[in-house]
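Forum > Structural Biology > Help requests

Title: Can anyone predict the 3D structure of Protein SULFUR DEFICIENCY-INDUCED 1-like?

Hi all, first post here. I have the sequence for Protein SULFUR DEFICIENCY-INDUCED 1-like but no way to get a structure on my laptop. I'd be grateful if someone could post the structure tokens.
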Amino acid sequence: MKNNNINGCTKKGEKQQLEYNYHVIHKLPPGDSPYVRAKYAQLVEKDPEGAIVLFWKAINAGDRVDSALKDMAVVMKQQDRAEEAIEAIRSFRDRCSKQAQESLDNVLIDLYKKCGKLEEQIELLKQKLRMIYQGEAFNGKPTKTARSHGRKFQVTIKQETSRILGNLGWAYMQQSNYAAAEVVYRKAQQIDPDANKACNLCMCLLKQARYIEARSVLQDVLQGKISGSDDLKSKTRAEELCKELEPFVSLGHTFPSPQLNLEDAFLDGLDQLINQYAPFRSRRLPIFEEISPCRDQLAC
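Reply #1:
Sure, ran it for you. Structure tokens for Protein SULFUR DEFICIENCY-INDUCED 1-like below:
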């Protein structure tokens, strides 16, 4: 009998250790709640539909609602149910904490992009810029911790502003509003220049038949002067754009810069925004001191 008890305890201990290792390997939270079962279905069983059902149960049960809503929306997007995911976030984000709102906005932006909802995407990106100008981004902190492929890293307000402007510029490009995209990309490059945005800026100028300016933008990439210039994809794209520009530049074809006119007051609002939040800008967000000389070109 004693040996049976010992063997039983040993097996129970081994089972607990296996379960612990399983959770660690698959990065599952501990416990047996609806949210944990949803993550198990998502990551281990590879059952996205089952995971969505369990995420719904977690939200309704108030179990880790912040994570459940965000994770469910991501799985829905992967299942080509982006419209449904958008409605879910809109309907249930009021149950989430204040700290979760920024990450939910990021998920929404990806969902709008997936659905081709450019106007909604642009408006939300501009809203995120407003929050940065007002000192409300990152919950008032200068940096935040982000994750990518399981790794944590720090993101600064400066980097986040440039990233949002880059996404905004891309959205304008999808609308063929190259003049607006140009302004946004120039702002992004002033803050945190990189090769990918330089190529996009070049494309905006090319579409406006401003070939000499476009080639000038590419030089920083081809000469390796900005971040990402050594990336093979960006370098190849820059070389391809340079070849596309060559016939026009050699003939001296160029046109004057167009007058930018955005009906949504995108250009007019920054003056008011900077004046209104000058104390915040000076105390919390010195990066916007760098933007202010060009405030007549960019607004939220």
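The first strand starts at residue 143 and ends at 148. The radius of gyration is 24 Å.
Shout if anything looks off.
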